[in-house]
Amino acid sequence: MNEFETIFKEQFKVIKNYERIVKQISQKSMSKEELGRQLNMVSGGGLSSYIYNLEQADFIKIFKSNAPFGLSREKTRKIVLWDEWLQFYFHYIEPNKRMIELNTESGLFEKVAGQSINSYLGLVFEKFCMKNLSNILKNIGVDIHQVIDYGPFFRQKKRTNPHDEGIQIDILVSKKGQILTLIECKFQSNPIGISVISEVQRKIQLLKAPKSYSIERILITAGEITTNLKKSDYFHHILGIASLFE
Predict the structure, then answer these.
(1) Does the 2-114 domain belong in CATH 3.90.1440.10?
(2) Cβ(57)–Cβ(25) under 8 Å?
């Protein structure tokens, strides 16, 4: 249970503020300004330095939310916890340290994790796909020289407009020729059915890409898909988890 302290002390002399930052973004990704408010730290100066050091150590990653076709003026950058071990630590070990110390029987993890393990694995799977994007592109026949930009795409809901809807896309690749490749990453125990089509179609509508853009739809799954989804031909490519290693 001391792996966290060991890992951080190898990188940073004083770990208290680094731990606070990583613990906060393990709950959800957020902007530097939001992180500063949550931790009661000024968003400039010291906080910026901590974030920079964490990014250099590859514990976090920062993604911008600008639309690839230049329609979004949103300049927010989202800080994402990028280290799988830290994600696991703050989800299941850190909150249950005292219980783990007392435990002498098997099966504790199943009791602690419960149903939350499904959402946790879904989150980790998205990051795993992102880290292996080059293999995904290779499997769908995309030449990396055609790629202009890539990453998770998000647009925050505007507080001034109650009818506005936010949007989050697992991975969006912008390619030459005004082509967008939308990649949906799904990790679930049950076979994925046709309901995923409406989910992806809604994201495309909210993306509001110009008509001159074409959008490729890719599904990456760690499990099985239903026959109806396979017959729908909605996705240009459906890849299994093996594609992430090839």
Answers:
(1) no
(2) no
